[in-house]
Amino acid sequence: MDVICHSVDVEIPTTAAEPMLWSGWGDPARAAELPEPVRRLLGDLLGVRAPDTPAAALGEVRLPGPALPAPVVAGLEDAVGAGHVRRDHEARVRHTRGKSTPDLLRIRAGDGSDAPDAVVLPGSHDEVLAVLRICAAHRVAVVPFGGGTSVVGGLAADRRGFAGVVALDVSRLNRLVSVDAESMVAELEPGLRAPQAERLLAGHGFTLGHFPQSYEYATLGGFAAARSSGQASAGYGRFDDMVVGMTVATPRGTLELGRAPKSAAGPDLRQVILGSEGAFGVITSLRLRVRRVPAERLYEGWRFASFAEGTAALRRLAQDGPVPTVLRLSDETETMVGLARPDELGGLAADAGCLAVAGYEGEPGETRARRDAAAAVLAGLGGTCLGPGPGESWARGRYSAPYLRDSLLGAGATVETLETAGFWSALPGLYDAVRLSLQGSLGSPLVMCHVSHVYGTGASLYFTVVTAQSADPLGQWETAKKAANEAIVAAGGTISHHHGVGRDHRDAYAAEIGELGVEILRGIKDRLDPDGILNPGVLIAG
């Protein structure tokens, strides 16, 4: 059948404001309070009320007294230059924790107890090695720090048994080192933020095609360390799929990994570092597969009557093709609220069903042919094309949800996200289990979900939950998070599809891989980091 549904070309931003808001997400200029009508609606629906006390100012954040011994400070200054060892209040606050809801609740309450004693900014691989040697010799914990966008407690070291903590900020490692156009491989340093990397690669006609929600502020090193997955993963793959080689600094020396596209020469040690969240070493260089910049990007929206119907349609495309570059589906609640369009703070009608977004990138002829073929499949499986409007709106607001999260926190709501993945056959049970666990632990929250990434064998589910803050919002979310983690494990899902493990998922991750799996990881850490200084408490228990 003929499907009439026109698409529009959408641009990808290549700039980001700096620095990130210290007490929230992203560009400080975009931080805003919720409109009063929205506040009233939250009060009526969920009982949300404004917090009793205002958030702390930057200068009011309480930090532990500096603990680094003088010889350590002197050694670090010799290694990287005195100007690149910062111990001032603002630098320490800005390198305290990440950007999860618990992280922000603590920092807004003035709690900087996890702040590093110093922020060290090495400018080369050799300087990173020097910093690690000094810290190992004096038993100082080291937290590798990229964009600071972790949402799983991945940037809060366990201080116990250490002489101090330093944040090893890789932002000075920010070069495009080389481009092998023939092999379509580029070498880049880990401190490049994604928009910077895209701008540099575009000068050579290439793109990574990696656009997660953290795109504007996250770094390439962070993408690798947490096994990031971008919103265009259906077309470009996950970030770990893009890594063909890397250089890693460890307290024991240097690892050079990856010398061919594929190899049968034993286990792939790149996989040991990918997802290790700085617990095994510090990535100082990445060799990444790149793609040609697409001539056209097209996005459009589709309506399905139910989440089950829409999920079946996505599965059909993922398994039989043609596969769009972007493919995602919001459930009924998320569609009704309009969270697929977070920059507009307004949704579709209450009977809107479920909104799917499909995007296509490539050469004009090929892109439109793939779009037409996929549209025929979606229409044949019950989808109704809504035209380019919803797709364009999603693309325009694809990085806005964290700003909305911050606005809701400021209004007195507890709002947080969590995600998982499972095989297609397990997905309905996983979806129900997580929703029920959140509802059971929080009373009557608003729970929304979307399919964020698809594969031939399964998909990822991304949940957003909103509820009124209790008198103890940290305890409130910890209870809900624990229940959700247990539900994910029991329902056969993975504890994290793309956010990583950090501290928040550590126990559930141990349950997922089993006691022997934990012993294997601990053996790797003991060999690469015998003094245990790298991000202690993250990924695996000490």
Automatic annotation (TrEMBL):
Sequence ranges assigned to domain FAD-binding PCMH-type in this UniProt record: 112-293
Pfam families: FAD-oxidase_C, FAD_binding_4
UniProtKB keywords: FAD, Flavoprotein
InterPro entries named in the record: Alkyl-DHAP_Synthase, FAD-bd_oxidored_4_C, FAD-bd_PCMH, FAD-bd_PCMH-like_sf, FAD-bd_PCMH_sub2, FAD-linked_Oxase-like_C, Oxid_FAD_bind_N, Vanillyl_alc_oxidase_C-sub2
Family of this protein: Belongs to the FAD-binding oxidoreductase/transferase type 4 family.
UniProt protein name: Alkyldihydroxyacetonephosphate synthase
